[in-house]
Design a protein that fits this description.
58% of the residues lie in helices and 15% in strands. With 410 residues, it is α+β, with helices and mostly antiparallel strands. It has a domain of 177 residues. α2 packs antiparallel against α12, α10 packs parallel to α12 and α11 runs antiparallel to α12. It is a multi-pass membrane protein.
Length: 410
Amino acid sequence: MSLFRLTIRNVMHRRFLSLLTVCAVAVTVAFIVLLTLSRESVEQGAKKGYGPFDLVIGAAGSETQLVLNTFYHIGAPTGNIPLSILEQVQQDDEVDQAFAMTTGDNYNGFPIVGIDPGYFVTRYGGRNLQEGSLYEHTGETIIGSYVAKSLGLQVGDTFSGAHGLVQEADHGSLETGHAEEEEHEGGEEHAHESFHYTVAGILPPLQTSDDRAVFTTVDYAWAVHGLSQEKREITAVLVKPVSLLGAHDLKELFDGSNGVQAAYTSQAVSEVLNAVDQGSRLLGILTALCVFLAAITILLSLVAAVGERTKDVGLLRLLGKSRAYVWMSLTSEGLLVTMVGLVLGLLLGHAGAYLLQDTLFAQAGIQINPYHWTAEHWLIAAGTLSVGLLASLGPAFRMYRLHPLALFKS
């Protein structure tokens, strides 16, 4: 009987234990693959999330909060700053491009962002829209590809926004005793419902957080609330400096003056990535535990096989099979089970990434690619097979050392 046929027969003879071992390996590999894809997506999304804008100016507060809200559309803005700040920034010789941004409203949970159309040319170059054209007048919008896909919007559709960054499930759920607040919020709601947006264009898939936002003119918030010239404010100013030295000079000039802060975009993103790395270390410990349990499962499976197969191995030795044949029969069984678990784990990991991609992108702006194969996949495969081989060596070596007569008599 060939070694391969013997291995298959032995695995099928102990179907339940073999299946349990395969499942343990598959779940461990799938978890590692999903973790790897997620971590890589976070790093890539963070690096290209702010484009050429190395500096952002906004209201005093958390720099991380300012950057996350401005470029990743996560969380609330730190506040508003005077419109005059934009004019000061644009007049500075150290500035290549500067764009004002206004936020604070949403449509079905997707943020409505007011920004000059030049932002898209500066950040994404000459990429064409998927449909339609850029907005020119107040009330016209272009929407991200994910927004269009999720809500089924098309060029020419109209809609009304809502106040706040999250769609309220129940606008009327107000406690008694707050009549003035209720009247104010009722006025806000009426103002937003009476202001209509028109979809002028749809952005192509950009693989950034801009895919899940609605963009319009900077003055949309002023038009909705009917603000006069002296009351007009903006949320942030996105700055593309001429040089890194210019960015430093701008930060020194604007940071800490009149409730305004200037933040290095890359520095704030690095802090977020450091926090992610801390969480990855904890998950790494959990992963190591899963690998250890999978190795124990393989070991126990082969130990049980040795106990059941002692007489069979003794008979094979008496028939003239070499020690190497016996040793290979047990190690190949462990490697076969490990390899099947590895293949299933890779498929499950990518299938999990496919199922979670929309949820991750909607909640955190993480664009995970379920079809991406990285260099770490080869390391995962090599590591899994190595663990399977090491777990197989002990039981195989035990059978290898015993004399044929001792094996048969036992």
